[in-house]
Amino acid sequence: MARFCPLFSGSSGNCLYVGSATAGLLVDAGVSARRIERALWEREIDPGSIRAVLITHEHTDHIGGLRVFCKKFRIPVYATPGTCAALRDSNALEPTTMCFPITDTMQIGEFTVTPFCTSHDCRESCGYRIVLPDDRCVGVATDLGVMTQTVRDHLWGCDLIHIESNHDIRMLENGPYPYPLKRRILSAVGHLSNEACARELPALVRSGTTRIVLGHISRENNLPDLAYATARAELAACGLTENIDYVLQTAAPECDRPYTVF
Ligand SMILES: [Zn+2]
Ligand SMILES: [Zn+2]
Predict the structure, then answer these.
(1) Mean per-residue pLDDT for 217-244?
(2) Domains and CATH numbers, the chain
């Protein structure tokens, strides 16, 4: 049995929970330690059961609460060597907090964790494939300008994926953002659009994925219903039926649901 909850998702802060009955991991800690702690307790998860925080990259919406949370609960951090260096350079960690560089598959407590490269405008961003003790597998891939074969390979066969569906291209183009920011988001090191995300989903469902969580949804350039509809339409066009072949969810900026058990 595995547990998953996108506690916080989007540019206002990211923090995902992945756990078993006895222990858990966080992916990113982008809101205050107080809010992370409260979100865990609301789901009756003891923060003391968190074995590590895996960081995808050093942007503030992924590390805002990291320093305080890891200090308070004496939790180690795992990140790519580039991200570890970026965290140290920007004083994002207490000197006493361990930051372990992760380059390949590692055992962290009862979890088997594999990082994989993502295309984003930072030092060395990554996504994670996490295998739980009962062989349930979770894939996390957000903050990527383009889907790459590396990312596909690592999401392949995961029971549950948390994948970026950041913006609707037309809403972004016609929206309020300044032109350079629009260009950055649309670039190969920006964020994944609804359309680009949706295109990946049929093959992933055929690979065995039954639960899809659309994450890092932009508040300004997207609507949760639009992300949802775009994904469902692409899956339907490939003959895949919601709630029979797969379960689809959108991640809210702040989750108000219990964790998913699968
Ligand atoms: Zn982000
Ligand atoms: Zn980012």
Answers:
(1) 98
(2) 3-252 (3.60.15.10)
